Automatic annotation (TrEMBL):
One of its GO terms (molecular function) is lipid transporter activity. SUPFAM superfamilies: Lipovitellin-phosvitin complex, beta-sheet shell regions (SSF56968), Lipovitellin-phosvitin complex, superhelical domain (SSF48431). This is Vitellogenin-like. The keyword Glycoprotein applies. It comes from the Eukaryota. The gene is LOC118403036. Residues 137-162 have a biased composition (Basic and acidic residues).
Length: 1248
């Protein structure tokens, strides 16, 4: 028995030794390894809805090892599927059963589990059956399929496998063989065929990155050393579990990766590897961004800027390897999961999430039987990092049919609505230059060939607007061709040049084309075109050289620094030549504004000469101020040089206040440190100019109260600097800087309006005024728009309009005080008594060489900036302004005659307010794109008639008074705005994701008559009422998930035509709220006969907001303001204003005289307003009586001897503040209106 036991024990030990000696399967040369690959993408808003969209890719991946390091890869048995549906996870069912009330909000853990990817991998038959047997009709109505070929709609939507015939272009490239090096888990040196596009190589990079494994951290960039010499214990190669961090390359970039490697406890020679990416610590991140507008992310010291798209990826791999040999292994299976989160506002609700998952499982390994072909001709594609390339877009066949249409059909098609304008721009972008030239030149005729129909004029206008927004160098060449052929007017040319300069991604070739336009015949012959061309050149130079916008010169010439410097000098020399060759001050102003748009450092010295150099004494003030403002874009890059140039200007009291305030603005734009702010604040203590002092103080105070994130540091520093500043509060007639702001912390959005005015001592009107709108949204700050006006000689023009002779040396302030002076005749008489001191002072002044201040020559301009780029400025005609001063009239006699018979005005404008996109790669090698796009369409049709009796201007009526004015206006103004935000993933054939579509429409119908009878003091206004319901304001938004499938099918002529199948499912927000919040109110149905109604519908973000905040990603939103006829609706409403007189017949002559003097002193007026709603059976009448008057308060100084009173008036009436009744000079005085915020009696000393 013992022998048998010993024999069995020996057999067991022998078997165990045999198992230990069995070799571990590792990658070996001349072997094929076949893996099954599965990758899926799913997008949605999981906290709001369980609806999702996405795609699924399956394929067999064949790896053929020619040597131990040279590997060939080919994809086989490729299938592609669209995903569109709704989740119903077991966790959600359990949570629904646990609910105690229908109003209970689903907790956050349900949000975490309901969109978990494990539930997305359920059998396809399960959720397909769910959708096929869906009973609710409401759920299927919002599922929509649009086909450009059939135009049919589908009521059901679910996943669909893409037919092979629709994937021909995809399979053509994706089945090509690639070659790469695989050294100890490191994938590098990828080679592919030269004709294989980047999108195909990127997809294969996404598969290869699953094989990227850093098994030995000592051969990589280790980040876990406690010191420079001794490695950590976690690097022990014999340890059963190791944790370390390295910098590792993959498809998304070179980022920090945390490894956790441990031995599998169940299977022998199997190691489990878990690696996690940290995308906040990347040496290089692959991304692509472009936008028409420019903005920046405010960075606070010590804080990391919040990413607009936050990503996280974790990979789990099982590797077969020998513990004693670390460089030999074989991947058995690997799975990667990632999330890409777009969080536009707060941390609670509305997160758009894209889940990405891919897996690779070993199916078989065998000796090589078939040799894979080498990629020939081969081209090196680099490493694993994603490369953004231009996708070759096929010719849109719709334009072929468009060119074969008749004129009437073209006219109907070109009448673009708001939702079609963006599609038109995209279609024009997809064309090649010859196609674009053919279509535009055929549709755009010469302006001499006037279109009789305004609809044809609209079609031309919309097409030109779309062309200017194409944003490609081919579009600029087409615009140049239209200008050379004189097919566009000067105004159309200027608008197209402005639009293309804002939308284009500049390159050296496009900048060269714009420089040719600046010197072209058309530009030299038209000042308007020349001005627009120079401003556009400056805008494009800034886009080419700025670091905040895509398309920098370094990207086009990455390895040629010498060429970059030559181009910089060339561009700067062009701008300097423009300034040197300018023949007039107007041309110099244009060149300075172009320099300001460009913001080139090489032009700073020339601007310094204009500001403070030898030319500054003879240079007009307007040019010196513009040269200072031209340093605005350079100030942030060269803050010290800018400070040394501008602070002496600001600190010089002999300089004009406008120069000093402009220098202060540019210094503040350079983000000065606290020391500079304190120095500026201390200078106000000795400031002699109230204009400069109040402007600086109000600006520092404005920044200390700012709530914008970009001003976080300046807010703290300005608060400290204000402690050293001298307070200035002289009044609105002095220079100042004010801000009106509105910030929503929950939405992380806000806007601010800055209003700056620079006044002049010689005038009550400001010389310079500007308004600047800033917007903070999605972490970016954007200076959206700025408009301003600068006018010299405005005082003389206003005096002329008041009918004042030019020889008089008084200001318009005398006219503003005329009534006050009439009420104080006694005071004027008392003041007219001159003392001996006054007589002697007048004699001294007559002997001194003192001249009366003369008005400056009339000149000025109005400008507009769009996202920091000055797009237009219009100079006021100096001759017309001089004529207004001399003759008191404006030369518009022809317009006056047209107004008498009726003038029709039709304006149409289509443009894009926002167009921006950002792309980052997913671990599948497919790009995820965040697009924001908006289109604005404005139309205005107005017919105006105006008749002034006997004439508008004094010379036309022989200095007679105007007796009457009759005006009739009929028109309609419409504005439509569409905003589309989309987060999508594209795999060339399928595009899926989440989209938000918001539409705003406003309509303002205006029809009425106005009659002013100045002779009889009777005025009438008639307004026509609407006959049917009109929507005055409508805002609708809808979030939805979608899939878009591209397919190519031959038509009847055998020509390939690309169609798109679009499916969508609306996100109703029922996971947050079962029923949306609804609000309705109306007014005026019975009272006015016109019913104004306001309706809103929204899904609350957290189920407690009952108002209508802007949370568009939680569900559909609607806000509607409408007007419709009510009960006994009137046909028109008449407003009559009649000035009445009191009856004085019963008074004696003396009483009449006293009454008249008292009425003139009080400036008393009696008016009667009659409102009549015209209706055949039920007219409505309302009368309002108004009695307005003014009173003067006399306050006397009280001495200890009460019978002595000083008749000197020490307080006059304060406009719009208080009215004081005075019964007699020595009776009680009481206050009858509020003063400021409170109301109180006068002091007791004034009651006696």
């Amino acid at each position: 028995m013992n022998r048998v036991l010993l024999l069995l024990l020996g057999l067991c030990l022998a078997q165990a030794n045999i198992g230990q000696d069995r070799p571990v399967s590792v990658y070996d040369q001349d072997h094929d390894y076949v893996y099954r690959y599965e990758g899926d993408i799913k997008s949605g808003i999981p906290q709001t809805s369980d609806r999702f969209s996405g795609m699924k890719i399956q394929a067999d991946v064949r790896l053929q090892f020619r040597t131990e390091q040279d590997v060939f890869m080919r994809l086989e048995k490729i299938s592609l599927k669209t995903l569109l549906g709704e989740l119903d996870s077991p966790e959600e069912k359990k949570m629904q059963m646990m609910k105690t009330s229908p109003e209970e909000v689903v907790p956050d853990q349900m949000y975490q589990d309901s969109f978990k990817q494990d539930h997305l991998d359920m059998a396809e038959d399960w959720w397909m059956t769910r959708w096929l047997h869906k009973e609710s009709s409401e759920e299927t109505q919002d599922s929509e399929m649009k086909s450009s070929e059939s135009g049919e709609r589908s009521e059901k939507s679910f996943s669909r496998e893409v037919p092979e015939e629709d994937m021909r272009e995809l399979l053509k490239h994706i089945e090509k063989v690639i070659k790469f090096r695989y050294e100890e888990g490191d994938v590098k040196d990828i080679e592919a065929r030269k004709d294989e596009p980047q999108w195909s190589v990127n997809f294969k990079r996404g598969i290869l990155h699953l094989l990227q494994l850093t098994m030995d951290p000592r051969k990589s960039d280790i980040m876990d050393r406690d010191d420079d010499v001794t490695p950590n214990m976690s690097y022990d190669k014999f340890a059963t579990e190791r944790i370390y961090r390295v910098m590792e390359d993959d498809v998304t970039g070179r980022c920090e990766t945390l490894y956790n490697i441990r031995d599998n406890r169940v299977q022998k020679n199997i190691r489990e590897i878990i690696k996690t990416k940290d995308y906040r610590n990347c040496e290089e991140r692959s991304e692509h961004a472009q936008a028409i507008q420019s903005g920046f992310i405010p960075q606070e010291q010590g804080e990391e800027p919040k990413e607009l798209l936050e990503s996280s990826v974790q990979t789990r791999a099982y590797v077969m390897m020998d513990r004693n040999v670390h460089d030999k292994f074989m991947v058995k299976s690997v799975e990667s999961r990632g999330q890409h989160v777009f969080q536009p506002y707060s941390d609670k609700g509305g997160d758009v999430i894209t889940f990405a998952k891919q897996s690779l499982k070993l199916q078989e390994s065998a000796d090589r039987t078939e040799e894979l072909p080498e990629p020939e001709p081969a081209e090196r594609k680099g490493g694993l990092m994603f490369v953004f390339g231009t996708r070759d877009q096929p010719r849109d066949r719709d334009w072929d049919s468009y060119m074969r249409m008749g004129d009437q059909q073209k006219q109907e098609l070109t009448q673009m609505k708001k939702e079609k304008f963006m599609n038109l721009v995209e279609e024009l972008r997809s064309l090649h230059q010859d196609q674009l030239e053919t279509i535009i030149t055929e549709e755009i005729t010469s302006p001499q060939e006037k279109q009789q129909d305004w609809r044809q004029q609209n079609a031309r206008k919309v097409l030109l607007d779309a062309l200017s927004l194409v944003g490609k160098k081919e579009a600029l060449k087409v615009i140049q061709q239209l200008m050379e052929q004189d097919k566009v007017t000067d105004d159309e040319s200027a608008q197209m040049l402005t639009g293309i300069s804002l939308s284009i991604q500049p390159c050296p070739e496009s900048v060269s084309n714009m420089m040719d336009l600046v010197k072209s015949r058309r530009s030299q012959s038209s000042p308007q075109v020349r001005q627009s061309a120079w401003l556009s050149l400056g805008t494009m130079l800034h886009g080419l050289l700025s670091e905040r916008r895509e398309g920098q010169l370094k990207r086009h010439l990455p390895e040629n620094s010498e060429m970059i410097m030559q181009l910089r000098r060339l561009y700067s020399q062009e701008l300097l030549t423009c300034l040197d060759d300018a023949q007039s001050d107007d041309e110099k102003l244009m060149c300075l504004k172009a320099m300001g748009n460009a913001g080139l450092e090489d032009t700073v010295d020339r601007l310094h000469d204009v500001i403070t150099g030898k030319e500054s004494d003879v240079t007009p003030l307007e040019l010196r101020v513009e040269a200072i403002r031209a340093l605005w874009r350079v100030a942030e890059r060269l803050p010290h040089k800018t400070l040394n140039i501008l602070y002496p200007v600001f600190n010089n009291p002999e300089r004009d206040p406008e120069e000093r305030t402009a220098a202060f603005d540019v210094i503040m734009a350079s983000n000065p440190p606290l020391s500079v702010l304190e120095m500026i604040a201390q200078s106000t203590q000795r400031e002699t100019s109230n204009q400069v002092g109040q402007y600086v103080y109000t600006c520092l105070k404005k920044l200390s109260e700012s709530e914008l994130p970009k001003d976080a540091r300046m807010k703290r520093d300005c608060t400290i600097a204000l402690r050293l500043a001298k307070p200035f509060n002289k009044g609105i007639q002095y220079s100042q800087s004010r801000r009106f702001q509105a910030i929503d912390r929950d939405m992380q959005m806000g806007a601010a309006l800055d209003i700056n005015t620079v006044a002049d001592r010689s005038s009550v009107w400001p010389r310079y005024a500007s308004a600047k709108l800033g917007l903070h949204a999605m972490g970016y700050h954007m200076d959206v728009m700025e408009t301003g006006v600068r006018v010299e000689g405005l005082q003389a023009m206003v005096d002329s309009l008041f009918g004042k002779d030019r020889d008089e040396k008084k200001s318009v302030f005398d006219y503003l005080k005329r009534k006050s002076q009439q009420r104080h005749r006694t005071e004027s008489t008392w003041n007219s008594r001159k003392s001996l001191h006054d007589i002697e002072m007048e004699k001294i002044q007559q002997k001194l060489p003192v001249e009366t201040r003369r008005h400056s020559e009339p000149q000025g301009h109005v400008y507009m900036k769009w996202f920091g780029n000055e797009i237009r400025f219009d100079q006021l005609n100096q001759q017309d302004m001089q004529q207004l001063i001399d003759q008191g009239r404006w030369p518009i006699t022809d317009k006056e005659e047209q107004l008498r018979h009726g003038m029709d005005t039709h304006v149409t404008k289509a443009t894009k307010l926002v167009e921006a996109s950002r792309q980052i790669p997913t671990q599948l090698g497919l790009p995820i794109t965040l697009d924001m796009n908006s289109a604005l369409l404005m139309t205005s049709d107005v017919n105006t008639k105006l008749k002034v009796n006997p004439g508008i201007f004094r010379e036309d009526r022989d200095n007679q008074e105007v007796k009457g004015v009759d005006c009739e206006v009929k028109g309609n103004q419409e504005l439509a705005l569409q905003f589309v935000g989309k987060m999508s993933v594209d795999c060339y054939v399928i595009q899926s994701g989440v989209e938000l579509n918001a539409v705003m429409t406003t309509q303002f119908p205006l029809s009425g008559k106005m009659s002013l009878d100045l002779e009889n003091k009777k005025h009438k206004l008639t307004i026509e009422t609407p006959e049917k319901e009109r929507e005055l304001f409508v805002w609708r938004s809808e979030p939805f998930v979608f899939t878009e499938e591209s397919r190519s099918r031959p038509n009847a002529d055998g020509i390939e035509r690309e169609d798109k199948i679009f499916k969508k499912m609306s996100i109703q927000g029922r996971k947050t709220q079962k029923w949306p919040n609804m609000f309705h109110t109306s007014f005026g149905r019975e009272e006015l006969g016109l019913e104004f109604s306001l309706d809103s519908r929204m899904v609350s973000r957290q189920n407690h907001e009952k108002t209508c905040p802007l949370h568009p990603l939680t569900g559909p939103m609607e806000l509607r303001l409408a007007c419709k006829p009510g009960m006994h609706a009137p046909t028109q409403i008449d407003f009559e204003l009649q000035q009445t007189e009191d009856t004085v017949r019963h008074l004696s002559p003396l009483e009449r005289l006293v009454f008249t003097e008292e009425k003139e002193r009080r400036n008393e007026r009696r008016m009667e307003v009659t409102v009549v709603a015209q209706h055949p059976q039920h007219p409505r009448t309302m009368k309002i009586k108004l009695n307005t008057y003014e009173e003067v308060c006399f306050c006397f100084r009280v001495f200890p001897i009460y019978h002595l009173l000083n008749p000197l008036v020490i307080m006059l009436m304060v406009f719009n503040r208080t009215v004081v009744h005075l019964s007699s000079p020595c009776t009680k005085i009481r206050r009858v209106l509020k003063w400021g915020e409170g109301s109180r009696d006068l002091p007791q000393t004034l009651k006696a």
